[in-house]
Amino acid sequence: MIMDIQEQNQGLRCNYACRYCDRPYASRQSRWNHEQRCTVRFAMLMSEHETNTSLTVPGDQECHILERLNKLEELVVKSHAEAKHKQSTITVTNNTFQPTVIINQFGMEDISYVPGDILTRLVRQMDKGVVELAKVKHFHEKHPENHNIRGLSIKQRMAQVNTGTSWCYLDLDDLLERIFSRNSDVLDAHFLENEQELKMKFGNSFRIVEAWFDKARNCDKDTLKNCKRKIMIMMMNMLDPCKKLKSK
User: Fold this and answer.
1) What is the C-alpha separation between 31 and 175, in angstroms, rounded?
2) CB 184: neighbour CB atoms within 10 A?
3) Which residues pair with 171 in a beta bridge?
4) Which of helix, strand or coil describes residue 167?
5) CA–CA distance from 139 to each of 36, 134, 142, 195 (Å)?
6) Would you give the end-to-end CA distance of the chain in angstroms?
7) If the chain, 248 residues long, is cut into consecutive pieces of 10 residues, what is the mean pLDDT of each piece?
8) CA gap 123, 238 in Å, rounded
9) Is this structure's pTM higher than 0.85?
């Protein structure tokens, strides 16, 4: 009798047993009803869900990381483009930037850029040295701050000079005399300060140089007239707008 029940249960297990916990049922409907609330089935589903979740989390994190990397790459590209544009703008600005030059007042020029050996050479040239010093002082290309003479008019016998606050006209003869006086004084001071050294360097020509500076100190008429004429010619050449020829 017991054997018959076991065989019957075994047959039921084979035909309508629960697919999760192997519990036998007499009909398919009974098995289906059981499987809807089978605790083993719920445990299996929960385990599968946790497994799937654990498998998908790295994928989600990877997508998130890739998204952040893409955004970072976009920012780097944008920053590089902005830096390149800014550098280009700075380059253009530097190429077109012209600093404002403050022009020294006439009579207040800075000639510290003229070395002592050049002054010695100009002393030896006497009247030519005075003209050359005036040229280096007022028309040096690298020192526009001393370009304080303009508007030369031979016909009207006048020129403009910078007074520190404005430009004003000055009588040409007066201007030439001031230029001669101030530049000859600079060379005369250099001559007297280095008299013994120059005496040895100039040799026999020292007496000639000494005599010329004596005349310049005493405003000798011929010496002054000769120098003023040479200074005027120099200024005409330097202030002539057509003196610089354009290279073809």
Assistant:
1) 126
2) 26
3) 158
4) strand
5) 107, 8, 9, 29
6) 130
7) 47 65 78 73 68 53 66 69 59 54 91 95 96 96 94 92 93 96 95 95 95 94 95 92 52
8) 22
9) no
